[in-house]
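User: Sequence in, structure out. Go.
Assistant: Echoing your sequence, followed by the structure tokens.
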Amino acid sequence: MGRWRLMWRAWGRTKPPGLRSATLHCRHASSFPLPRQPLPSLAETTARYLRSLEPLVSPEELEQTQQLLAEFGVPGGEGERLQARLQRRADRMENWITDWWVQSAYLESRLPLAVHSSPAVVLPKQDFNDWKGQLRFAAKLIAGVLDFKAKIDHQTLLVEYSRGYPLCMEQYSRIFASCRLPGPKHDSVLLPPPGRRPPTYITVVRNFQFFQLEVYNSDGTPLTVDQLHWQLQRIRAQSWKTDKEPLGVLTSDHRHTWGQAYTTLMRDKLNRESARAIQRSLFTVCLDAPVLKVSDALASSRLAAQMLHGGGSYSNSGNRWFDKTLQFIVGEDGSCGVLYEQAVAEGPPIATIIDHVLDYCKDPVPVRAPLIPLQLPKKLYFCFTPEIKRDIEHAKQNLDILITDLDISCFTYCGFGKELLKRLRLSPDSVLQVALQLAYYRAHGELCATAESASLRRFHRGRTETIRSTTSAALAFVRAMADDDCQAPERLSLLKKAVKVHSTLTEQVAARTDCVMCYGPLVPDGYAVCYNPLPTHVNFAVTAFNCCQETNAEHLAGSIQKALDDVGALLGNWGVGSDQRQP
């Protein structure tokens, strides 16, 4: 089996259904019935398991596994007993796998949220380069988020569809005013209590200092863009750079370590009140300081790093509360992005919010600000005992070590995009997945276990599952590409077959925004590859850890570009060359 494991993901989003749209109150998803998550039979599960092993193990290992599975599945044996227990769980629960998924994939993980878990979305750089433009854009962004939230509150959010099927909208009702909480053995999630009035404020953080900003007027209407802009200026006036402790870096630490520090922090009443204000806020806006400029070739990778972890304890990492479900990041240099925590929601709902917000920022709704005096944003104070200061120093050291270990390579491939692939009646996601298999094979001489995320939102309370993208058809194709005696027609035939096999497993739909997601590898000797296929190009972010000598993000990124060139040539995509690639 391949040693290096990969995780790559299309930055997924589902399209609104146009004339088939319906309205749905997100908090009462049962009003729009969805099927329950099906439970595969034991035979289906073992067959899928074998198929996933075929391209990764030797014939002898595969035969041995078949024998073990045959023993496991004998009538009345252990397999049938376990299947029966699963069936009883499926019969009594709304969704038999979701709670397990959230616990095992997120809440029980002890690795830091920064890099290891929370994805970042790098948005297009905005047209400003000073604090004035930063605050104007941030005001429009906040107004746009509140405009989307109003759709949830007023029960006018359109149900999303995929391939004609309605999707579960439950995640939207949990994104706002939620936060992950550290625990000694596993984490938990803070959600707004049902039936109670939701919070009316957000958290704004600048120069490591947190502020509670009310974003609704006394009559319940959201603050206008002008009002928000004025309030952000008042926050800036209260947050000049001083020797402030970067408290936010505590949330970036190992979950067990942060859990212990959290217990210490919450012993003080002032700290409890301030921390709970952050946790219960609707969302967080991080007003980042500008970072040192780098060469154009490294700019996109540096930008991704800033969105993912803040650049380090002496850059903007103290401007984060990594436990918060939704954080919008706006830098003085025009950089912007989103960092989100996945225990509450996965990527597609976040992408929908982002698309709405960026559309709003281009053409905000003009509303005249009422002549009502606004209360001063409330600064959140903390008591820094020697013990807490020591915890912060340890967290700073650990985060900086993690950041130094992370290798990021971002690029835009301009040879072709999803427009061409759809014209050829090929799934863009499947073509890219097969190209990634080719790139990895060339870089490491074998295929490896690969996990691609897929949404289960077609089912009630559905979250995410993983697709095993390494297939025997993909292996046949990459071997043909390495065989000098294999001619183009046969290679093209094997490519189409590999794409067809993968497309039976899923299809992702890309975001409208010209953005890309990024996060760190899920294993020390692995890669994470995120991509966003757009009409004429594809955005990529590749990460690896420097501590592993066998993996290299830049090397794999180059291999991906070459693989896409070769796939494009097979598809008859003339004019694809190295001069069309942008760093």
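User: And one key feature?
Assistant: The mean pLDDT is 91.
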